[in-house]
Amino acid sequence: MGQHRRPAKPRAASSVSDPGRDTELRIIGGHFRGRKLRYHGDPVVRPMKHRVREAIFNLISTEAAGRHVIDLFAGTGALGIEALSRGATSATFIERHVPSAQVVEQNVADLDIADRVTLRITSAFLWSKRDLTSESDAPPRGLPWLIFCSPPYSFFVERVEDMLDLIARIEQAAPPASTLVIESDQRFDFAGLIGENNSAWDVRDYPPARVGIWRMSQPGADK
After folding, report:
1. CATH number of the domain encompassing residue 71
2. N or C: which terminal CB in the chain sees fewer CB atoms within 10 Å?
3. How would you list the strands of the sheet with 2-3, edge to edge?
4. What pLDDT digit, counting tens, does each position of 41-71 carry?
């Protein structure tokens, strides 16, 4: 599994006392359906609620197979791994928080999919500026991308300009027929993203989560 450096072996996942969090993570569908995922319980990580992850994959059920997955702010890696379970060809996980990156690595190892995965232990913002368009480190462009962006909700308020820049860079770099899925909370207004190149946002509310899906059209698809 390609990465900038190999983290130490993670500790076993601890229990989570916060009733607002899902304390057990499982893969919902596909080849690895029902398999448990590790989660260290660190409050810095906010795993996507099971019902929201299930709703997203109901909406994009045919958009995982044959694609390269990019899981930004990967946390446990649940979104990217779910896509791999459903037929995605390969995946890039971006996670700055080292204990979380260790959990991603262990979940990937548990499922024996390391040969299909690249883990970058870095900021998603830095990665988008440094690696997204580089010749050596960029994700493969021979396949459409399926990009998941599920950062801390506070980023949509405290780092909104960084978030808008990240989204714009992904849209500009993504190959035709790519799909971008963003999870925010109710404070983020997807209407502000509508412009020349992003008029196809499909926004759904799963309180407190808000999910926006943007699909890049194939060349000539509107003709």
Report:
1. 3.40.50.150
2. C
3. 2-3, 117-120, 90-94, 68-72, 145-149, 179-185, 209-215, 202-206
4. 776 677 788 999 999 999 998 999 999 999 9
